[in-house]
Amino acid sequence: MEVGAQASDGLYFVGTKEELIAAKRTVLTLDGRDVLIIHHQGEFYAIDCYCYHAGTSLQNGDIEDIDSQRCITCPKHKYKISLPAGEGLYRGRDRSQDPPPLRWFSKGVKQRVHQLTERQGALFLRLSAGGWVESDYYQGEKGRVERERAASQDSGGKDDSTE
Ligand code: FES
Question: For the chain, what percentages of helix, strand and coil (3-state, to nearest 5) are there?
């Protein structure tokens, strides 16, 4: 089966486990969407390739653990994104305590993540769909149109995408 081909159940073949481990980071275009597949310390992750903040490729982002969550740091403005869930993380003061200590907070899911399944040494990916995720904006015209729609449904169309 060719890389990028769809199996009968709709999953995309993205490579053998061996190939993806050797490559460490692989970018594939699946149904017009650029997806970054990462192998890091024994785990695979698949996320939208372009950072939700301003569209920089995450391919060369550093990976670290923050509060036991594996995260990638965008090379451009250093935003932290959890790899398993796509949450945007930021460090701030915890005002529930006095004095307020610095800790990590979540902004919620900002980067779309995709599901990987292994079958007999081969990896298959299911593209996540549904709802609006900020990283959709950098995945072509459809994502931009969807953002306009999501913004018009917001209270007053407020855009907080730079948070
Ligand atoms: S483009 Fe990624 S943090 Fe700004």
Answer: 15, 40, 40
Dihedral (CA of 6, 11, 12, 13) sign: negative
Q: Is 81 in the pocket of ligand 1 (CB under 6 A)?
A: no
Residue 11 near ligand 1, beta carbon < 6 Å? no
3-state secondary structure of 19: helix
CATH number of 12-154: 2.102.10.10
Q: Domain segments of the chain: what residues? A: 12-154
Is ligand 1 within 6 A of the CB of residue 76?
yes
| pLDDT by position in tens, the chain (length 163) | 899 999 889 999 999 999 999 999 999 999 999 999 999 999 999 999 999 999 999 999 999 999 999 999 999 999 999 999 999 999 999 999 999 999 999 999 999 999 999 999 999 999 998 889 999 999 977 767 777 777 777 755 444 444 4
Q: How far is the CA of 47 from the centre of ligand 1 (A)?
A: 15
